[in-house]
Amino acid sequence: MTPRILVTRRIPDSAVRLLESAGEVWVCDQDRAMTPAELHEAVHGADAVVTMLHDRVDGEMLDAAGSSLRVVANVAVGYDNVDVTALDRRGVLLTNTPGVLTDATADLTFGLLLMTTRRLAEGERLIRSGTPWAWNFSFMLGSGLQGKTLGIVGMGQIGRAVARRALAFGMDVVYTARNRVEAEVENELGADFLPMSELLERSDVVSLHCPLTDSTRHLIDGTALSRMKSSAVLVNTSRGAVVDERALARALREETIAGAGLDVFENEPEVDPELLELDNAVMVPHLGSATSETRTAMAVLAARNVVGVLDGSGPVSPVNG
Ligand code: DGY
């Protein structure tokens, strides 16, 4: 029987064509996330499903799919939207899209870092508001990056790409991670390993690149924020819930830290209303991987994963199994 492939959201044509080489493809054509009820109905009888980071893949969804389902191809490197244990129990493979979004996310991290330390969003708002301004020696001063310390939390591919960029900006790099990386990599990046508490105390910029798991949820809470320097900046391009957003808003309001650059939010797409009031919070709407090249590469990689599972050659980037 021809395999049935569900794609939960419009993806680039090149990826759809690839999927069509492996089965009958149904792409949800509405320009919004499917509701759980719509997803459960559409996935019934599918052999493969291509999911987005906002799709909840849990036991209920897998039961709705039924025993035909062989692979869930998540179009994201993060897979905190997926209950991997529920997939394992049913023998369903999960794949993600590592590698192809590394540079785009690292670039955006630096964009946010500069926006925050050099007050770019604030300056742009000032111009647009028509507020009179004039150059003077102390007008809208930010802080430079040269010689400052960047603390990277999570030294996977994206953390490493951020470290490389930091070197080009003349920054010192320290990092913390579940496992220390190989000495060769530390040397190449000039990165010193530190325990989390020390990294928070020493860094001028703390940048988050760890996945969201039970152990990283609210990793940056009130206590962690209170360890940071009052001149320091937090950048988050990982997942919103790695940070306790209420505690962050408090720290920014009370200026116990200097600023935050946020690409991700705890209850996306909702943003804590308090953050919206704060000039020292720079926010963009989950744009880490948002370049046309990267999004196409992500969709194509997800499609290659599906094809590999369905034709028996195996997935390119499996998470489990
Ligand atoms: C990911 O791949 O996890 C990104 O957040 C997608 O933008």
**Helix-strand pattern, N to C?**
EHEHEHEHEHHEHEHEHEHEHEHEH
CATH architecture of the largest domain: 3-Layer(aba) Sandwich
> CATH superfamily of the largest domain, please?
NAD(P)-binding Rossmann-like Domain
What do the pLDDT scores average to?
A: 97
Strand order of the largest sheet: 8-7-6-9-10-11-12
Radius of gyration: 21 Å
Beta-strand segment tally: 12
Classify the helix fraction into a percent range.
25-40%
Specify the structural class: alpha/beta
* Tally of alpha and pi helices: 13
- Largest sheet, if any? 7 strands, parallel
Pfam families: 2-Hacid_dh, 2-Hacid_dh_C
Family: Belongs to the D-isomer specific 2-hydroxyacid dehydrogenase family.
Keywords: NAD, Oxidoreductase
Domain D-isomer specific 2-hydroxyacid dehydrogenase catalytic: 5-320
Q: What does this entry look like structurally?
A:
The structure is a single chain. This protein is α/β, with parallel strands linked by helices. It has two domains: 4-98 and 292-311, NAD(P)-binding Rossmann-like Domain (Rossmann fold); 102-283, 3-Layer(aba) Sandwich (Rossmann fold), CATH 3.40.50. 37% of the residues lie in helices and 15% in strands. It has 13 helices and twelve strands. The strands form two sheets. Strands 8-7-6-9-10-11-12 form a seven-stranded parallel sheet, with helices on both faces. It has a five-stranded parallel sheet with strand order 2-1-3-4-5, sandwiched between helices. Helix 1 (13-20) packs parallel to helix 13 (292-311), helix 2 runs parallel beside helix 3 (59-65) and helix 5 (102-117) packs across helix 7 (157-168). The longest helix is centred in the last third of the chain and has 20 residues, at 292-311. (2R)-2,3-dihydroxypropanoic acid is lined by residues 53, 76-78, 101, 286, 288-289.
